[in-house]
Amino acid sequence: MFYVYCLRNEKTENLYFGYTNNLRERIVEHNKGQNTSTKRYIPWKIIYYEACLSESDARRREKYLKTTIGRRMFKKRLKDYFASE
After folding, report:
1. Is the backbone peptide bond immediately before 43 cis, with ω within 30 degrees of 0?
2. Which domains does the chain have, with CATH numbers?
3. CA atoms within 13 A on the CB side of 46
4. 59-75: burial string, b at 16+ Cβ within 10 Å, e else
């Protein structure tokens, strides 16, 4: 399985989208500062993930979620979560 996930920084409210085949290990790496893209915004909290059977589907979904339209759809999908924050 491959996972597409979204992390959120509590302080800055930044979102980060990524994909991996080992979700637990990847989140630990983000919070240890082992990813240059997310290192300066530690700590991260996972707010969403979805599973895909193939890596190419996960990569395509991650790429879509990083677009403007994808972010809008994502925020609409998690409307109650963002409203409560």
Report:
1. yes
2. 2-84 (3.40.1440)
3. 17
4. eebbeebeeeeeeeebe
Backbone angles phi, psi at 71, to 5 degrees: -65, -40
Q: Which of 29, 30, 17 is nearest to 61 (CA)?
A: 17
In the beta sheet, which residues pair with residue 8? 15, 45
**Residue 45: its H or E element:** strand 44-52
Separation CA 60–CA 22 (nearest Å):
18
* pTM exceeds 0.85, yes or no: yes
- Whether 16 has a pLDDT exceeding 90, the answer reads yes
Residue 10 pLDDT level (bands cut at 50, 70, 90):
confident
Average pLDDT of the chain to the nearest whole number: 94
Beta bridge partners of 2: 52
Q: Which residues, 6 or more positions from 5, have their beta carbon under 8 angstroms from its beta carbon?
A: 17, 18, 19, 20, 23, 26, 27, 46, 48, 49, 50
